[in-house]
């Protein structure tokens, strides 16, 4: 399955054939220089099979998908890293996705799922102290006007003041900010949804917030929109590429941060072809 794609098979075959050609050439030179070496028919078969086996092994090693892909740019002077791991182990600024109501209630997973990135953020960073989190969100959003307020009869659970898609509430301190961005719309039926336009707009707003408050420090972001935001028209790999394209495009205007790290959850690793991601990075 790892080499079932055209790019994977192409890398494997190209590296294996190159290694076989080089090794065969060196062997022929050696035999020509040391003509006294006499090989039996059995010896020749052993050498051939050994060369084939080693060449194939070299091709597999060279084409084996990595768990980390890095691209460094000269102009602008930035770096992009895509890695498999835990977002919350990254000691960097973090981007956390919220809905347009900035709901935080995880009771029985009705409004916000405890297993979502936001749910983990509330647990690991705030210890599920939602009173403190809601107070800090309110302070961060104090300068932003809500576009509308839902009637309690229409939305009886969770918050009711809606903010524009792309609204960013910056929490934490300068050493480690949390850029909480509204990239999905929460329906009164408590189902959140987003789309490509919402994501693109939200990513642009995040980069602007990072530019203004991130002090060019490293930022880490998950693959937004892949789970409960229900962006069904794009798979995880396409969403990842969208984040990369948005960041690099914005960075060509002015440097947002010195390095962006996109963290892939381990369970999503086999849904993403890292060979394709590496190839996409080289095109940016």
Spatial extent as radius of gyration: 25 Å
* Alpha-carbon distance between the two ends: 27 Å
Mean pLDDT: 87
- Class by alpha and beta content: alpha/beta
**Number of helical regions:** 7
Major sheet: 8 strands, mixed
**Helicity range of the residues?**
40-55%
Series of H and E elements: HHEEEHHEEEEEHEHEH
**Uncertain parts:** none
The count of strands amounts to 10
Report the principal-axis shape. elongated
Strand content: 15-25%
Description:
α1 packs antiparallel against α2 (41-63) and α5 (196-213) packs across α6. The mean pLDDT is 87. The protein has seven helices and ten strands. The radius of gyration is 25 Å and the shape is elongated. It has 284 residues and is of the alpha/beta class.
Strand-helix topology:
Elements: H1 6-33, H2 41-63, E1 68-72, E2 79-84, E3 93-99, H3 117-124, H4 130-140, E4 148-149, E5 161-162, E6 168-173, E7 176-186, E8 192-193, H5 196-213, E9 219-222, H6 236-251, E10 259-264, H7 274-283
Parallel strand pairs: 2-10, 3-7, 3-9, 9-10
Antiparallel strand pairs: 1-2, 4-5, 6-7, 7-8
Helix pairs in contact: 1-2, 5-6
């Amino acid at each position: 399955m790892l080499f079932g794609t055209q790019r994977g098979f192409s890398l494997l075959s190209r590296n294996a054939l190159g290694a076989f050609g080089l090794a065969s050439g060196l062997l022929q030179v050696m035999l020509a220089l040391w003509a006294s070496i006499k090989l039996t028919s059995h010896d020749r078969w052993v050498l051939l099979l050994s060369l084939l086996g080693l060449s194939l092994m070299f091709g597999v090693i060279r084409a084996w998908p990595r768990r980390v892909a890095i691209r460094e740019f000269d102009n602008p002077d930035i770096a992009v890293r895509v890695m498999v791991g835990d977002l919350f182990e990254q000691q960097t600024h973090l981007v956390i996705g919220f809905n347009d109501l900035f709901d935080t209630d995880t009771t029985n997973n009705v409004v916000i799922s405890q297993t979502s990135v936001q749910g983990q953020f509330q647990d690991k960073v705030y210890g599920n102290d939602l009173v403190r989190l809601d107070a800090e969100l309110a302070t961060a959003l104090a300068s932003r006007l809500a576009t509308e307020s839902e009637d309690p009869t229409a939305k009886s659970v969770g918050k009711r003041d809606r903010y524009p898609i792309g609204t960013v509430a910056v929490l934490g301190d300068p050493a480690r900010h949390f850029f909480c961005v509204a990239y999905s719309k929460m329906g009164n039926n408590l189902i959140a949804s987003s789309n490509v336009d919402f994501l693109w707009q939200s990513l642009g707003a995040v980069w602007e917030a990072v530019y203004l408050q991130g002090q060019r420090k490293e930022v880490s972001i998950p693959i937004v929109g892949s789970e409960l935001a229900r962006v069904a028209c794009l798979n995880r790999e396409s969403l990842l590429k969208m984040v990369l394209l948005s960041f690099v495009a914005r960075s060509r205007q002015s440097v947002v941060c010195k390095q962006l790290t996109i963290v892939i959850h381990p369970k999503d690793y086999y849904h993403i072809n890292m060979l394709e991601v590496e190839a996409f990075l080289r095109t940016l």
